[in-house]
Inverse folding.
């Protein structure tokens, strides 16, 4: 989760003039080595929603849960296996900036993990520093993965990076090759892969205000979170690092219809819209894709709605401020793991 409005009154450009950047070009996803599997993911997600989505919180019809962007190919027509998982994949979620600071206030019910266990999957939160940089958090991810019991056979761990959690995971996989044999896949979920221009307009000292959130137990760590989110930092890192071999890489992008943006996020949405209106209030859509990954979906949800269930535990705040927070996260998580399981058991790429 990024910071909403640290410098709401600032007028400097979100993408300031600079020559300190690697050469960049904006190209169609296929030309960046991205494999477009939106059609098959849509089939799986729709099957999940149709089979038991109405029994889960915040149900939406499939066509409202996903955003069609450009030309999406027709589905495969293959049946979708909704039975128990054979690989028993485990999603380890790395959250974004500040999550550790407000987790106790948010008090999430853990309903995603409860739902996934019904089908032989599992999920857990892999804690990292709320306000530290990606290199620091990458080491924490490495230590957490290596502390897990080594299991025989193919790896089962799926690292899912939400917001800044995505670059934290990418750096961990690049810097610590010893964890790669234990990781089946990495998923960017609204990931700050290319950074956010909002970070250019923010300062780490402002991020540190989150230490005073009611019930917060976080510390300022190495004070590198905001710097890690700046586009120049992220683009430079991508230019210097190829994808670490071993795991498969996937991208889930938040691309909400404007009316799906929560009222409290409209200010940051409008700020980013000065660059591109196709944003989720924190990230522009093309900056969320891991180069060389498999693109699963454009999700009709703002940056908080995909992962932070504010409205479920704080209904008054949800009704007034976080008005677009409802989203079928349990069904989405199941669909992501089902797609990955199908992909891992298909012919090798």
């Amino acid at each position: 989760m990024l910071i909403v409005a640290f410098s709401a009154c600032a007028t400097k450009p979100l993408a300031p003039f600079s020559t300190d950047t690697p050469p960049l070009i904006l190209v169609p996803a296929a030309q960046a080595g991205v494999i477009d599997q939106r059609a098959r993911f849509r089939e799986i997600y729709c099957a999940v929603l149709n089979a038991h989505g109405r029994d889960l919180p915040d149900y939406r019809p499939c066509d409202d849960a996903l955003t069609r962007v450009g030309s999406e190919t027709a589905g495969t027509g293959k049946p979708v296996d909704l039975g128990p998982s054979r690989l028993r994949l485990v999603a380890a979620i790395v959250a974004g900036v500040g999550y550790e600071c407000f987790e106790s206030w948010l008090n999430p019910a853990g309903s995603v993990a409860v739902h996934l266990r019904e089908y032989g999957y599992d999920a857990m939160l892999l804690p990292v520093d709320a306000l530290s940089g990606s290199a620091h958090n990458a080491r924490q991810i490495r230590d957490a993965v290596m502390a897990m019991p080594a299991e025989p056979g193919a790896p089962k761990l799926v690292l899912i990076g939400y917001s800044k959690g995505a670059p934290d995971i990418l750096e961990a996989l690049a810097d610590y090759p010893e964890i790669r044999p234990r990781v089946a896949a990495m998923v960017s979920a609204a990931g700050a892969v290319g950074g956010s221009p909002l970070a250019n307009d923010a300062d780490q000292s402002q991020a540190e205000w989150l230490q005073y959130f009611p019930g917060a137990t976080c510390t300022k760590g190495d004070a590198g979170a905001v710097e890690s989110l700046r586009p120049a930092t992220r683009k430079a890192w991508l230019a210097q690092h190829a994808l670490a071999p071993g795991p498969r890489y996937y991208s889930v992008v938040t691309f909400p219809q404007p009316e799906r943006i929560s009222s409290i996020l409209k200010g940051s949405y409008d700020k980013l819209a000065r660059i591109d209106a196709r944003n989720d209030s924190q990230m522009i859509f093309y900056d969320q894709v891991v180069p060389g990954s498999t693109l699963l979906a454009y999700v009709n949800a703002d940056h908080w709605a995909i992962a932070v269930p504010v409205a479920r535990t704080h209904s008054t705040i949800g009704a007034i401020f976080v008005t677009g927070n409802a989203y079928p996260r349990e069904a989405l998580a199941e669909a992501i793991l089902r797609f990955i399981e199908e992909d891992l058991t298909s012919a090798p790429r």
Notes: Residues 329-344 form the longest helix (16 residues).
